[in-house]
Amino acid sequence: LNFDNVITCFRRRPEAVSRLICFPWAGGGSIHYARWGTVLNSCIEVFAVKLPGRESRAKEPFFQNMQQIVDEVISVLLPLMREKPFALFGHSFGALTSFAVANALKKQHNVEPVHMFVSGAFAPYSETRLNYPQRSELSDEDFLRWMTSIVMKLFLPVLKADLRVVESYRCNKPELPFLSCSITCFDGRDDIPHDLQAWKEATSGEFTIKMLDGSHFYLKEASNEKILLDYITKQLETSELDYF
């Protein structure tokens, strides 16, 4: 697979100081985040991860586990991650996939982001998450009843496939923080509580929680998106100073 199979990038910026690599929510595609590349200033280049089973990869089989996502993203992006500072952003399912990628990057390649932005998700090793009901195992009828409450228009097979990946993903709680970068957690005030404090266990760097108005898809509100992108921009504009 080459770069264009796996990444959607609406605006290449070779002069950018840093990159923001974005991971989709369950059932989601890459376009929402790729659009950020046309909104953020020229010092940030945005790469949006495009998973099998959707968009231009619609005919490819869904991934069955987290390792497949990690292997593919790293095989395509590792050389680019080594050349300039990068940050990771993920919402919900995307927050856990971004964590899994960061974990593998650090442990296998000694590379880490300058910042992790995680949104609307439990930390992968959170006790609350591990005891949560497995929605991918529901009957289609029960699953649809749950799904329509928050994501009426999402496509059933791709959503269930993504949930199967994330619900089968297991990660031991770090005995010591393995990252040193900053982590920021975003969440909607009206979403279910996500035990955000557990994300702090992953890093020895700064840890911040920012709550925004709205429920699970708070980030699709224009006012919240502006707050999110302004904050990310502010954090990344100085990233080059901390990276090398």
UniProtKB/TrEMBL annotation:
<keyword id="KW-0443">Lipid metabolism</keyword>
<keyword id="KW-0378">Hydrolase</keyword>
<keyword id="KW-0276">Fatty acid metabolism</keyword>
<protein>
    <recommendedName>
        <fullName>S-acyl fatty acid synthase thioesterase, medium chain</fullName>
        <ecNumber>3.1.2.14</ecNumber>
    </recommendedName>
</protein>
<dbReference type="InterPro" id="IPR012223">
    <property type="entry name" value="TEII"/>
</dbReference>
<dbReference type="GO" id="GO:0016297">
    <property type="term" value="F:fatty acyl-[ACP] hydrolase activity"/>
</dbReference>
<dbReference type="GO" id="GO:0051792">
    <property type="term" value="P:medium-chain fatty acid biosynthetic process"/>
</dbReference>
<comment type="similarity">
    <text>Belongs to the thioesterase family.</text>
</comment>
<dbReference type="Pfam" id="PF00975">
    <property type="entry name" value="Thioesterase"/>
</dbReference>
<keyword id="KW-0275">Fatty acid biosynthesis</keyword>
<dbReference type="InterPro" id="IPR029058">
    <property type="entry name" value="AB_hydrolase_fold"/>
</dbReference>
<feature type="domain" description="Thioesterase">
    <location>
        <begin position="19"/>
        <end position="235"/>
    </location>
</feature>
<keyword id="KW-0444">Lipid biosynthesis</keyword>
<dbReference type="InterPro" id="IPR001031">
    <property type="entry name" value="Thioesterase"/>
</dbReference>
